[in-house]
Write a structure and sequence with these properties.
alpha/beta, 6-stranded parallel sheet, 13 helices, elongated
Length: 340
């Protein structure tokens, strides 16, 4: 098996020095046109591929940015990654996607590996935004930007006002006449879930006749949504919630499936509001109402903050960017109930 051609072989074939080949690769403008042509022909003939890893090792940093998300199966994070990658491409940077699967141990493994790879920086939706490992990374020279999370002044962050999102969902359901409402999400210790829960709790507290019940799940996926939906559908009609606000759309879509299997009409028997407004929300059998987050904009904005921090170095001042959510009302909750 033949080895990879070296820069010395390229130089020998082109009849130039190793320094000239190095200049061709890194500063081609200073190399004479006819020399550039000979070097390029040598590279093509030998099949030479530059060793970016070695070059980055010498420089101390790579052109790779780590992106650690909670669940790559959730289209929200796919859209977020698309926004980050679009800007990274413009800056000749590559995004390495890591999936923590909502597991702090797995998340820590990814952070260790990314730091060892000398990545340019890390974008992360962490399980715990207060994790001291994140600030420790920054102190050791790896910029970190939180995505879909708020941070203190020690880190940059890009997020959505999830408390407001919870309020929007709760206000909509109360104004539609619902007096027994379920909030479903989890774990409740996760910041985004906690904020959405606090938002709907605050708006319900302003109405004396509304019963808000909480249902915690370990993972916010379709399977868990279907399971909790089956559980609620089996309750006696007079004690069953008439509306549910779910902390993400995957949960809501599973919940919607359970209602269909149980023969409950959506929204007449059960109104449903999700969160994120992924593409599948509007394409569901009963189009899903959802609190919209600008996922691609979150990713792009996080990458902008990271680029600022890398370029400004010691002059950088951390910023916390917060976007406002919008409630998108569709058929799953667009029904007025008469108060009993």
């Amino acid at each position: 098996m033949m080895g990879t051609p070296s820069i010395k072989e390229v130089a020998r074939r082109a009849g130039v020095s190793v320094g000239t080949v190095s200049n061709f690769l890194n500063r081609p403008a200073i190399v004479a046109p006819d020399t550039r042509l000979r070097v390029q022909e040598s590279i093509n003939a030998l099949g030479f591929v530059r060793n970016e890893a070695a070059r980055h090792l010498r420089a101390g940093k790579s052109r790779t940015v780590g992106l650690v998300v909670l669940d790559v199966a959730n289209p929200f994070f796919t859209d977020l990654a698309e926004g980050a990658e679009a800007l990274a491409y413009e800056h000749d940077t590559v995004v390495m996607l890591c999936n923590s699967k909502t597991d702090p141990v797995r998340e820590g493994h990814h952070l260790d590996q990314l730091e060892q790879q000398r990545v340019l920086g890390i974008l992360i939706t962490p399980f715990d935004s207060g994790d001291p490992r994140l600030t420790a990374l920054v102190e050791r020279g790896t910029p970190v930007v939180l995505v879909d999370r708020t941070a203190d002044r020690g880190l940059c962050s890009v997020s959505v006002d999830d408390h407001l999102g919870g309020r929007l969902a709760g206000k909509h359901l109360i104004e539609a006449g619902h007096r027994r409402i379920a909030f479903i999400g989890g774990p409740f210790t996760m910041q985004q879930v906690s904020d959405r829960k606090a938002g709907i709790t605050a708006v319900v507290a302003e109405s004396s006749d509304v019963d808000l019940r909480y249902y915690e799940v370990d993972v916010m996926g379709v399977v868990e949504g279907r399971a909790i939906g089956e559980r609620l559908a089996a309750l006696p009609v007079r004690s069953r919630p008439t509306a549910a606000f779910l902390a993400n759309d995957l949960l809501a879509l599973g919940f919607l499936q359970a209602m269909a299997v149980a023969g409950l009409r959506v929204p007449r028997d059960m109104a449903i509001v999700g969160y994120d407004d992924i593409d599948f929300a509007r394409a569901a059998a009963v189009p899903l109402s959802s609190v919209r987050q600008p996922a691609e904009l979150l990713g792009r904005s996080a990458m902008e903050l990271l680029q600022e921090e890398v370029e400004a170095s010691d002059r950088h001042r951390h910023r916390q960017v917060i976007f406002q959510p919008d409630l998108i009302v569709r058929e799953s909750s667009d029904f007025k109930r008469r108060r009993s």
